[in-house]
Automatic annotation (TrEMBL):
Name this polypeptide is given: Uncharacterized protein
GO terms under biological process: response to virus
Compositional bias (Basic and acidic residues): 7-21, 46-55
GO CC terms: Golgi apparatus
UniProt xrefs under InterPro entries: Fv1_restriction_factor (IPR053270)
Region of interest (Disordered), ranges: 1-64
């Protein structure tokens, strides 16, 4: 007679059918900042969209996201926000506001890791002075104010405009130039800067001849209107 076949032991889990699987622990959605002395490299081979920078700019004011940034996050920010070689400082400021607003919050270490955004060593160095967390927009405004003596130094970077879209862009650039040297903390949004008669006259000097008569009657001296209001009229 052949010996009885040995039964193979069943897996431990099968022997205890009443055991309930433990729920997986989910870590908080806070990003980790890698501490390093190496700034983000221009030649980093990683390409692609930058969802982190879009997420950081999705909230405004006191609701700004203040999570830490990883080096990859900072690379994405730099790729989106850095000034282009043929871009004037004043045009770059308008684009930076549209892309980031006041929602991108960085501390001093993260700003150093971000590297050069403006391609101007004075502005880049000044941006790193503040060690406590604050918005990238505030850092840039303060740095540009240290770099230039007055708003006219920024106005000199402007060129003539030929289309309505270019006219609105020039008007917003002027608002940013005025805001850089303003002590009014309520005017961090260039579109809400008051469009004064001085700003309007500067805009009309850069206009095409065919718009001269229309622009002359568009701005009412006794009405206080913002840059956004006047932009809608153009």
């Amino acid at each position: 007679m052949k010996p009885a076949a040995k039964l193979k032991p069943e897996p431990e889990l099968a022997a205890k059918p009443d055991r309930k699987p433990k729920p997986l622990a989910v870590a908080p959605a806070k990003k980790h900042t890698v501490k390093t002395d190496r700034p983000v490299d221009d030649d980093d081979p990683r390409e692609g969209p930058s969802p982190k920078s879009e997420a950081k700019a999705s909230s405004t004011g006191s609701e700004a996201n203040i999570d830490s940034f990883s080096l990859k996050d900072l690379w994405d920010l730099r790729k989106d926000y850095r000034r282009q070689p043929d871009e004037s400082i004043i045009s770059w400021l308008v684009r930076l506001w549209d892309a980031a607003g006041e929602a991108t919050i960085l501390d001093g270490t993260e700003t150093r890791h971000l590297g050069s955004l403006s391609h101007d060593p004075v502005i880049d160095q000044e941006m790193m002075r503040e060690t406590s967390p604050c918005s990238l927009w505030i850092r840039v405004l303060g740095s540009v104010a240290e770099r230039y003596l007055c708003a006219d130094d920024l106005y000199m970077q402007q060129t003539l405009w030929k289309t309505i879209e270019q006219g609105i862009q020039r008007l917003r650039e002027m608002a940013v130039a005025e805001m850089v040297f303003s002590d009014d903390i309520n005017t961090r949004n260039p579109d809400l800067v008051s469009c004064t008669s001085v700003i309007w006259r500067k805009l009309t000097r850069l206009r095409p001849l065919e718009y001269a008569s229309a622009l002359a009657v568009m701005k009412q001296e006794d009405m206080e209107e913002t840059v956004l209001d006047m932009g809608k009229k153009l």
